[in-house]
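Comment thread on ticket #2218

A.B. wrote:
> Attaching the input chain for the structure job we discussed in standup.
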Amino acid sequence: MVATKKKWTLEEEVALKSGVLRYGKGK
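C.D. wrote:
> Ran it. Output below, let me know if you need it in another format.
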């Protein structure tokens, strides 16, 4: 599981992008 930690899962990537779009640009 440590090896897969380097690459995010689709859910994590989407969640991160959503967070950046919502909070990143919001600030």
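A.B. wrote:
> Thanks. Noting for the ticket: The radius of gyration is 11 Å.
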